Amino acid sequence: MATVSLKSIKKSFDSTQVLFDINLDIEDKEFIVFVGPSGCGKTTLLRIIAGLEEATNGEIEIDGIEVSDAHPIERGISMVFQSYALYPHLNVFENIAFPLRVAKLPKAEIENLVMRAAETLQLTDRLNFKPGQLSGGQRQRVAIGRSIVRQPKVFLFDEPLSNLDAALRGEMRVELAKLHKSLDATMIYVTHDQVEAMTMADRIVVLSEGKVEQFGTPMELYHRPSTKFVAGFIGHPKMNFLKVPHLSSSSKGVSVELPEIGEQLLPVETKAENSGDELEIGIRPEDLILSKTAKGLPMKVEVLERLGGSTLVYGSVSLNQNFCALLQGDALVSEGETIKLVASPSSFHVFDSNGDAMKRQEVPEVMS
Amino acid sequence: MGKYTLFQKAGLYLAVLIFMTFILLPFLEMFMASLRPLEHLFRSPYQFWSNDMSFQAYFDIWDTVPMLGRYIFNSVFLASVTTLLCLSFVIPAAYAYARFHFKGKSVSLGLFLGVNMFAGAVLLIPLYKLLRSMGLLNTYAAMFVPGAAFLVPTGIWLLKSYLEKIPIELEESAWIDGASRIYILRKVVIPLAVPGLIVVGVATFIGAYAQQFLFAITFNQKRELMPLPAGIFEFVGYQSVIWNQLMAASIVGIIPVLLIFLFLQRYLVEGLTKGAIKG
């Protein structure tokens, strides 16, 4: 139905540049998530696609047609706002019917389309209510109803779940994923929550300071983050980082010196420019396990969080570097003690002094 | 806000009492004067209450000034037309000031406020010439056209701050759904601005009611078009002033405004304080 492609989009507000040369090709029916910390430009990018904001430079194509100067309605997009933007003086029926009334559709057809949208979203018994009388989840559904009722080619969502409580957010995530399957439309979704990005997206765009850090499937981002920023942003709890001396490089990988473990070969692809005295390694908390021998990364345990099925251990490794490990629920650890941690060499990520990742040679099957 | 002590409460009520006395005493004296027979008005010593008081003046006014009913109608009619005319300019202007960025925005807003500093009286002669060349003298328009013009600036300022409170997403959402600016104004902005419109409407109506006198005696000589404040002059004769009837007619003339106030005061208080605190 609709592809979206952005060609060298730039955006400045007065003298502040907020987007730097964004290039993206979004395929038909994809669920794309823009994710990044606040202020990274993700909402601005969405508003540019919507036509609410004009790009300072660059082109937007929807279905291969240049739409940079087109009105939102001509672009065939619809948008769900963070605040839902429901009309407080209209009831649910009229809120959903609004785009159809604008389009001056016949009464019977409006009724028909609104009822169908209301059924999809389980709102049929709420049609006469005003938005003020609805719960947060219901308001959210009305906002979605208003966007699906005129069958656009591309759906835009601007942090739609951020006003909901955690339990409802989980529910709505599943509902949105279902909706995506049933509507068969291209969706672009903005969030700062990497869990939403990981669970819903076909592909994720990680943005940082107005630039695309990485564009790939959730598993690519998790297993092969291209930069330290992406590695630290994707995954929960966050990846641990540690600066270590760089001993040597070969086709098998890099050799580094790990505290109390000594020389360790990490299987990554090296490039000529990756030389240097120091490298930064990254290891995810879920890849760490308790060492069965006396050898291992020494971690002083400061806080323990026992979740039942698993145990989260917070503490520090050499020179107060904060570390976190996700261990088994019954791990024999207590606060104040120093534990030894090990991980398989292939699970380490290695970053050079620019923060660029060296490609890992071995990654799990799920990638392919 | 915490609870007040008894002492503080007493102080508050005392302050309110002094203030209200100051404001309302003239009205009370007006009412008392309307009840007294004319020959007893200047009686010395002053008597607050006497046995010969009656509502007779309220019946006599209609005979003394046969067109009194017409004058009251003219007043309400002129104030209503002024209000409608004023609002038809204020709504689009306030919306533009609340939502668009353009060159000279703050300068022109300041100028509007500056216009309010000129009392209408300063501009009477130029206005007279203007109205004469437009052929509007001695018509209703001679009174409501300048009347509306003087009330537009305050209206813009009042409504602008109210419109700025309406979330911009509502308009953006409608814009994305294909609605035109005018459609958005009609179907989204105005329905949501009703409380603000009531405030501006009432303020304009009262302003229009109060300022009629000046424009009426300057730009109009037709008796049948005169509003009440000017018509009341007929109680002032060459020999004597029929004070009790004049007071009675004034009270009858205030009643329409009073009713509007009582009916809408809930909105008025809500609306005037609404823009004061950031939500």
Structure commentary:
The complex is a heterodimer of chains A (368) and B (279). Chain A is of the alpha+beta class. Chain A folds into two domains: 4-231, 3-Layer(aba) Sandwich (Rossmann fold), CATH 3.40.50.300; 237-363, Nucleic acid-binding proteins (OB fold (Dihydrolipoamide Acetyltransferase, E2P), Beta Barrel). Chain A contains nine helices and 21 strands. Chain A has a six-stranded mixed beta sheet with strand order 6-7-8-3-9-10, with helices on both faces. A six-stranded antiparallel beta sheet of chain A has the order 13-12-11-14-20-21. In chain A, a hairpin with a 3-residue loop joins β16 and β17 (310-317). Chain A starts with a strand and ends in a 10-residue tail after the last strand. The model of chain A has no long low-confidence stretch (mean pLDDT 90). The two termini of chain B are 17 Å apart. Chain B has eleven helices and no strands. Chain B is an all-alpha fold and 279 residues long. Chain B has two domains: 1-54, no CATH class; 68-274, MetI-like fold. Chain B is 71% helix and 0% strand. Chain B is globular. At the A-B interface, β6 and α3 of A face α7 and α8 of B.
Short description:
The complex is a heterodimer of chains A (368) and B (279). Chain A has 368 residues and is α+β, with helices and mostly antiparallel strands.
